[in-house]
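User: Hi! I have a protein structure encoded as tokens and I'd like to know what sequence might fold into it. I'm fairly new to this, so please keep things simple.
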């Protein structure tokens, strides 16, 4: 994998894991060749696309929608594997990874309060 042309893009791509780095490279190639964009422009657009679909890369926070005791909850975590283990331990079910801003706006009326579990 080549280093991105733009220094800022290169710095941001360095924080991507292997899977997201591969997704970035693939998207940049598609934009460059199919849309006939210069490589530097394609890399910028590809990075925006990856970050839009995976905002946890920037924040370090993953937001899960979970079911617990018949009720749907929103779970925020900085350690996804640990969160999944704890969720399974208490009998919860992961419903999916969701967007934090959209969840607060649409499901929580624009306001949420965090509380510690355990």
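Assistant: Happy to help. Inverse folding works backwards from shape to sequence: for each of the 118 positions I chose a residue that suits the local structure. Here it is:
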């Amino acid at each position: 994998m080549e280093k991105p042309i733009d220094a800022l893009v290169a710095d941001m791509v360095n924080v991507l894991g292997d899977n997201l780095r591969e997704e970035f490279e693939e998207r940049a190639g598609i934009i460059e060749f199919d849309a006939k964009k210069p490589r530097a422009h394609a890399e910028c657009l590809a990075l925006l696309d990856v970050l839009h679909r995976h905002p946890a890369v920037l924040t370090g926070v993953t937001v899960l929608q979970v079911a617990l005791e018949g009720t749907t909850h929103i779970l925020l975590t900085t350690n996804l594997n640990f969160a999944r283990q704890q969720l399974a331990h208490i009998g919860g079910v992961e419903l999916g990874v969701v967007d934090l801003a959209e969840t607060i706006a649409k499901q929580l009326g624009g306001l949420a309060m965090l509380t510690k579990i355990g």
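A useful reference point when you look it over: The chain is about 50% helix and 15% strand. Feel free to ask if any position seems puzzling.
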